[in-house]
Amino acid sequence: MEQAKAACPGVCFRVGSIYEIPKEQKYDLVVTSEVLEHMEDPERALGQLLGVCGGYLLVTVPNEPIWRILNMARGKYWRRLGNTPGHVQHWNKRTLRKLILEKGG
Questions:
Q1: Which long-range contacts link 49-56 to residues 24+ away (Cβ below 8 Å)?
Q2: Alpha-carbon dihedral 48, 14, 35, 32, rounded to 10 degrees
Q3: Cα distances (Å, whole numbers) of residue 34 to 5, 19, 79, 93
Q4: Are the beta carbons of 31 and 61 closer than 8 angstroms?
């Protein structure tokens, strides 16, 4: 976070649990990069993000099954069939879009 603060002075950066975001303030931009695949309850996590989003929400996730295939192509996580440790959800464009539309309209 120090690197982000140094690069963008005057911008408020916050880091914390996605499930415990204080709802008192709305943010112009909420970024969650490579997070939802680690969440046991991604619907709840997305709801928390939408609850504090006063402008834009940027969500990125690994594209499945391409992510797993690329992991295996580089010789990683063979016993896990290319699944990165900690990934408990798997997304592609269709499934992520469905989640966002169902939760956020």
A1: 49/18, 49/21, 50/103, 50/104, 51/21, 51/23, 52/21, 52/22, 52/23, 52/25, 52/26, 52/27, 53/26, 53/27, 54/26, 54/27, 54/28, 55/26, 55/27, 55/28, 55/29, 56/28, 56/29, 56/30
A2: 80
A3: 20, 16, 22, 14
A4: no
pTM: 0.80
Question: Which amino acid is present at 52?
Answer: V
Give the torsion through C-alpha atoms of 39, 50, 14, 37, to 10 deg. Answer: 20
Mean pLDDT by 10 residues, the chain (105 residues): 89 84 88 93 94 92 92 95 93 92 79
Q: How many CA atoms lie within 13 A of 68 on its CB side?
A: 16
Q: Per DSSP, what are the bridge partners of residue 14?
A: none
